[in-house]
Design goal:
mainly alpha, two-stranded antiparallel sheet, 10 helices, phosphatidylglycerol-prolipoprotein diacylglyceryl transferase activity, cell membrane, transmembrane, transmembrane helix
């Protein structure tokens, strides 16, 4: 068993103002996405121009934060939302949903594309490879904040989280998700999107890839206490939400590669 490396979840405290590592993880992910978008916008195949990247980043950040919070309150809030509706506005208490953030980004990209006259799926193909950066850093924030820990385990690298009331040795599932949803998915999508691909292919690969790695990693993550297992006695809410993403990814890839080869030979996303 490995000792849990206790790190103060508050990175900076200035009087009553406290900046948590989780929040810094989101800011770092957005900044890294902005930097990569600036670099990729230089290419002739980019649907986004360099002078549009700042605006694009703002739209993405707004979609992530608002969508992630709204999604969490409705998908995971349960009885707490009914008893205390104002809790949905207290962002500093934590609680974000990837699937809600994903829908938020979809809507934000639709609005951005309309404003700048950029085709929606070309825009999504441009943005998709950057998303795993924020996902991976967010999981590190979960690890530091001692939240979303794993199921009880007897593996040599299991950890006892000080905040766990049961004090069980558990999978450090946040680190598994960091490696899968962050490092692995980012590396693959950067490689995949660096070559000429038909429209919708990169978006489809992201949706399929994330859905698969998240579905797998959920087997090591402790289900939310107030939700438990949702279906068949073993499926979690997160896994249920991944199924539509996997199906969507497969459909997008079918649409992308089902077109005539001649119509897509020169496309680059």
């Amino acid at each position: 068993m490995l000792p849990y490396p206790e790190i103060d979840p508050v990175a900076v405290a200035l009087g009553p103002l406290k900046i948590h590592w989780y929040g810094l993880a989101y800011l770092t992910g957005i900044a890294a996405g902005w930097w990569l978008a600036m670099r990729r916008s230089r290419h002739s195949w980019s649907p986004v121009q360099r002078d549009q990247v700042d605006d694009l980043t703002f739209y993405v950040a707004l979609g992530v934060v608002l969508g992630g919070r709204v999604g969490y309150t409705f998908l995971y809030g349960g009885q707490r939302l009914v008893e205390d509706p104002m809790w949905a506005l207290r962002l500093w208490e934590g609680g974000m949903s990837f699937h809600g953030g994903f829908l938020g980004v979809l809507f934000a990209m639709y609005m951005f594309g309309r404003r700048h006259n950029i085709a929606f799926w070309k825009l999504m193909d441009f943005v998709a490879p950057f998303v795993p950066i924020g996902l991976g850093l967010g999981r590190l924030g979960n690890f530091i904040g001692q939240e979303l820990w794993g199921r009880a385990a007897d593996v040599p690298w299991a950890m006892v989280f000080p905040a766990d009331p049961l004090q069980l040795a558990r999978h450090p599932s946040q680190l598994y998700q960091f490696a899968l949803e962050g490092v692995l998915l980012f590396s693959f999508l950067i490689w995949f999107s660096s070559r000429s691909r038909p429209t919708c292919a990169v978006s489809g690969m992201f949706s399929l890839g994330y859905g698969c790695v998240r579905f797998f990693s959920e087997f090591f993550r402790e289900p939310d206490a107030h939700l438990g297992f949702q279906a068949f006695g073993w499926m979690t809410r997160g896994q249920m939400l991944c199924i539509p993403m996997i199906i969507t990814g497969l459909v997008l890839l079918w649409v992308a590669y089902g077109r005539k080869q001649g119509a897509t030979a020169t496309e680059q996303n």
